[in-house]
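Newbie here. two chains, one complex. Structure please?
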Amino acid sequence: MPDLHELIRQLRKDNDSKIVLLVSDGLGGLPLEPGGKTELETANTPNLDALAQRSVLGMSIPVLPGITPGSGPGHLGLFGYDPLEFYIGRGVLEALGIDFELGPNDVAIRGNFCTLDDKGQITDRRAGRIASEIGARLCEKLDQIELSGVEVFVRPVKEYRLVVVLRGEGLGGEVNDTDPQATGVPPLDPIARDEASQRTAELLKEFLRQAREILREDAPANFLTLRGIAKRPAIPTYEELYGLKAAAIAVYPMYRGLARLVGMDVLDAGTNLSEQIDRLGAVWSEYDFFFVHFKYTDSTGEDGDFAKKVQKIEELDAAIPRITALKPDVLIVTGDHSTPCKLRSHSWHPVPVLLAADTCRFDGSEAFGEAQCRCGGLGQFEAKYLMLYALAHAGRLEKYGA
Amino acid sequence: MPDLHELIRQLRKDNDSKIVLLVSDGLGGLPLEPGGKTELETANTPNLDALAQRSVLGMSIPVLPGITPGSGPGHLGLFGYDPLEFYIGRGVLEALGIDFELGPNDVAIRGNFCTLDDKGQITDRRAGRIASEIGARLCEKLDQIELSGVEVFVRPVKEYRLVVVLRGEGLGGEVNDTDPQATGVPPLDPIARDEASQRTAELLKEFLRQAREILREDAPANFLTLRGIAKRPAIPTYEELYGLKAAAIAVYPMYRGLARLVGMDVLDAGTNLSEQIDRLGAVWSEYDFFFVHFKYTDSTGEDGDFAKKVQKIEELDAAIPRITALKPDVLIVTGDHSTPCKLRSHSWHPVPVLLAADTCRFDGSEAFGEAQCRCGGLGQFEAKYLMLYALAHAGRLEKYGA
């Protein structure tokens, strides 16, 4: 039985259609009270509502019912990769999040500066939350470390957080964290979980030995722990899988990194939605598929700021006419997960989906919101199928069987 | 974990219930404009609407979201066989389509007469679209070919199209097409893709050698190419799987063939729906399950003739009282896929389903149409689960576990 990706490879066909995937991060929400409205339903969205009237709506389940996704799985699902099959390790996500260009031979690691006492036991797992400038300076020192046969990169993230990357042939990524998740005990040794990762563990041991030496005088940041040690997943690109030349127009590094992981060209996106759409128009003729990412519906949700999330949705709405003016064959507006202000966090609630195309079965929706999406023609479906809908509505899939 | 079929075998039980599956081919449609109605919604269907009021409705996804099925996968799904697991090769479907009774040891092949120049290169892949009578006469000549250890059948389909069947023990079906899909080049040799098909490839090579000799003087049809070489899938019958004695009442050969593939008795169906229902009544006491196929909602959809498809749906509606008069325990009305007039082709859009049974959870539907089915009690589900609903509503499935 062919799996989903084999099936797509068998059936895909090329044409001149243009597909836009507009991801409003954390779009889905919750009413604050029974009978109330969600953030999206509260927002005044005349453009999305008009679009809904010539669309088909639905609800997307990011991973599985009840499962709350992080940004990585949330986006992989939207991009058509089963997030349970393609796992992105924490180190990889952290590296993507600082625009580090990870190669297939790289092992990426999230590091935390920590404080050791003179017995070598951890007294502070976050090194007193040192200032970002101090972290950056210490990373420069660690970046000088040399290990035999591999390249070493050490990059600051923020405050006490950093990224370490080992680049070299044949390095496995299955190595345990060295953070003991406790104070009053020494850091753990890096232990390989498989044969292929023995050398990685040895190299990290040597890296940590040198780091301890280098940071000796830098208390409270006189050592570091390593976490989320991982290689990037072996993932087919948009070009290989769908035959789509794809562009990512995202402001935030992590989303740029996720797009890069699936082989999208990551374009200069400016600093806000208006500049992103300038870019979209400028490169319209050069690509088949455009991923446009809007961050602020997630961050306002995490802040629990209902009014602000509503306002951000209205900003998104205001940008819609400039996108529809480009006449995409398929325009999808959705989120990678819900981030209800009521919960101040990502959640498992299904995510509103709007798919506008001449080939869709208009479902009589009058507006874009959770209530309408719940009764929409796409029903509830796992996010990994969204790209099938995108391709189908764009005329990019052949019939299966005769 | 038991697969779907194992589970059914474990749980099925016999009783005297009667199940009717009325397949209106390509039933699902599209509104021509936002806010408009589909073909089914436009049609005046008082009988189906009355039936909907004592039914549960839903939407069936033939294969997977976004996947457009051919007739083979579309019907296999309705019959309860995962169309991704049970694949019907093109040669098999072509043989079924001319009512050829394929056995489990048969390799079926679709042939195209073609024209070769004196260098042996193809100049016309369809032999000038010769008349059907000429094709039939040439097939009679080729049917005389003898190959050692196997039977050979050559049957005309239409114009330049024919079917070749090799019948013999131990023949594999994994052989490449000989049609190079181009002119100005010679036909390809039949190449086996696995060990078990080496002999098939050798036999076909000899078949082609003799055919070239026989057709030497028959330009423009002085040779043929072979395509879609395949054996029928190893598929459990309705009797084995469900314990159902099943009858197919279908006018068109392909659907008769698909029914035969799953072990239904293929009955003389006459030439139109009225005669099909005469037959249904006549054999009512002899079977448990009845597959009745109505073709014209698909063909009018393929023609893009909205008014005509509406009219054909109304013809179907008019036949409903004669079916309900037989008092089936379960009556299902659905399609194998959508064929929207707007697209003039099969499509991926989910297909309206109506299931009438005393045991169903009536869902308050007032009419049979896409809008009502979208909100129906069965929700959206993969077609392969339809037979589970049929069996359940007929009281033919035991409880799972204690």
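Moderator note: Residues 110 and 163 of chain B are 5 Å apart (CA to CA). The mean pLDDT of chain B is 96. Thread marked as resolved.
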